Amino acid sequence: MTQRVILDDKTALVLEGGGMRGVFTCGVLDNFMDRGIRFPYVIGVSAGASNGLSYMSHQRGRARKANIDLLEQYNYIGLKYLFTQRNIMDFRLMFYDFPERVIPYRYDVFANSPERFEMVTTDCQTGRPMYWEEKNDSKRIIDIVKASCSLPFGCPMSMVDGRPQLDGGITDSIPFERAFSQGYERVVVVLTRNAGYRKSEKKPHIPSFLYRNYPRLKVSIRLRGQMYNHQLEQLEELEREGKAIVIRPVNPIQVGRMEKNVSKLQALYDEGYQCAAGIEFSK
Question: What is the tens place of the pLDDT at every residue in 183-233?
């Protein structure tokens, strides 16, 4: 079914994270780029921030290549990186080699783009979300997106402006409220879970030695499931009111957060592309 959206200076784009499930978002954004669809404001979390950067630099296919083609070539997900980087993924490759050498990022195009782009992290000291906007300092851009993608338990904290940060999905997984707070009146939201999905609200056990100097962060991690489900309920209400258009996978996701099956990833990318094709935009 075709959905119609008014695309003007009051329409924002919101990109959820989800690790490798973010290939769905890659498909959506490539469809938008193929049709010349641009938003005045985009906000991304975790994988949504990473994939959103390629959208902001008009690099159609770059995020797909990073998440599918190069995954098979470089095998950058695995426990072996815990021993070399204290990380479940090869962040050196993903956030340094990729943008500088393997699939160079067009920092100049991003810097000159008229649209706003924010990335979300979680401040480890306050346990609250942080919203970052940077176009000119390439090092700071990488610091922010790396922090936004730094999963709790599986990645070390990342520093932005001297403050320890982790994945923005801990505290603001679907930041549509941030978009409204910036003056936008309607949102197009890209989710990486199917309709009806809910997280378990069981509070995870966090060993006493882990994040012991960050008690507010531990509270936020424990409450994440509850927070996420509340956001989904709010978003579903916004859909009914006509204030949000949500692009989401049709069927329950078969792709894991750390998925390495390229065939599954390609299928989810294709689904994202097709779902986006069902959205018509008008000025």
Answer: 999 999 999 999 999 999 989 889 888 999 999 999 999 999 999 999 999
* Contact yes or no for 14/175 (Cβ under 8 A): yes
Distance between terminal CA atoms of the chain?
A: 20
The residue ranges of DSSP E strands in the chain, in sequence order, are 3-6, 11-15, 41-45, 116-123, 128-132, 158-160, 163-167, 186-190, 244-247, 279-282
Residue among 174, 122, 177 nearest 151 (CA)? 122
* Six token digits for residue 102: 């393997």
Residue with tokens 């994202």: 272
Among residues 170, 172, 97, the alpha carbon closest in space to that of 131 is found at: 172
Please report, for the chain, how many H helices and E strands are present, in that order: 12, 10
Question: Do the beta carbons of residue 279 and residue 5 sit within 8 Å?
Answer: yes
Using CA atoms, how far residue 112 sits from 56, 58, 100, in Å, is 10, 11, 19
Output phi, psi for 43, to 5 deg. -130, 135
Asked if 243 contacts 49 with a C-beta cutoff of 8 angstroms, the reply is no
The whole-model pTM stands at 0.96
Give every CB contact of residue 118 below 8 A, 6+ residues apart in sequence: 41, 42, 43, 44, 131, 132, 133, 175, 178
pLDDT in tens, 132-188: 999 999 999 999 999 999 999 989 999 999 999 999 999 999 999 999 999 999 999
Closest to 82 measured CA to CA, from 163, 20, 153:
153
Q: 219-226 long-range contacts, Cβ below 8 Å, gap at least 24? A: 219/127, 220/122, 220/127, 220/128, 220/170, 220/171, 221/152, 221/170, 224/169, 224/170, 224/171, 224/173, 224/199, 225/199, 225/200, 225/201, 226/201
